Amino acid sequence: MDMISEELKPSDISSILDSLSIPFNGKGWQTIKSPIREERNASFGLNDETGAWKDHSTGETGDIITLIERINHMDTKTAIQWLKRKIDLPEGTRTAPEPRKEPVPSYLPFYYVERSLGNYEANTLIKWMATLPGWDLQRAEATARKYYVGTSADGWAIFWQVDAENKLRSGKMMVYDETGHRVKDGYSQDWIHSKLKRSGQLQDFELVQCFYGLHLVDDKPVAIVESEKTAIIASEYLPQFTWMAAGQLQGISEYKMRSLKNRKVVLFPDIGCFDQWQEKALELAHIADIQVSDLLEKNASDETNGYDLADYLITFDLRDFSPHGWNPFTGEIFDSRGYPRSWDNIAV
Asked: Crossing angle for the helix pair 10-19 and 76-87, nearest 10 degrees?
């Protein structure tokens, strides 16, 4: 489809929305009543700075051109002509964006992963995980191996980023104390490729990150959290998902999400970060079916800013945890039914 969306400034989008009689506030993503169908409750996501949209009731997504098509009942060519007249775009304006240049990742030999697995008695993170309620060293080590958690000579945790093709992007090194918290003072974080470059063992290297845990992708819904530690722990409590980590608050990108194209994805933001990840979910809705869980927002206290899903899960004894955990019919967490809620009303 011809598109001029990337040519448009926010002021252009505002003019178009005004011409279409669509309310907007100039603050990016908002939820309004659908302009393309009748509805009682607002369920239409619209970015009034870019023109991107998603109808949460139908799952449809699009850009400003498709919105014009739907509202004015036009074909694409006519919609583009209408848009140009409204904002007075000069003739010769591009009708398609320049092809996106994909980043080209560098890779490390996989033997770096293989030789780092184990020595978990020296790994402070894994030793701490073994002390959690319902855990033991065997479970902690097995989970670490599944997620390619290595151990450095100094006992640091190494989170190896391995993509869906089982290729090694690099490894993030982090220091944890005996309570399972990150050490943030002094030299406490590094990357394997950076260490290799500093030692002269590696020359040119392009780090292109993927989701941590991407090598585990299968047919299950995907759950994404911010930290690697949280993904590893959550995988034992809620195995109905394939757990991955973004690596940081801003770690969810279009490039990374394309590896999960057309999948069901649930984001579990840390406390205080719900709105940022909700906006990101709307932005990337054309790639995957993305939902954002408000589990922590509903269950954590006001004093727990920065609290993440692992902090919440480890308050439960893993041995007592519901085997259902997640109800695929209702999308609810800790719902032990395993069947639709409405069935509760069926007389036996």
From this structure: 110
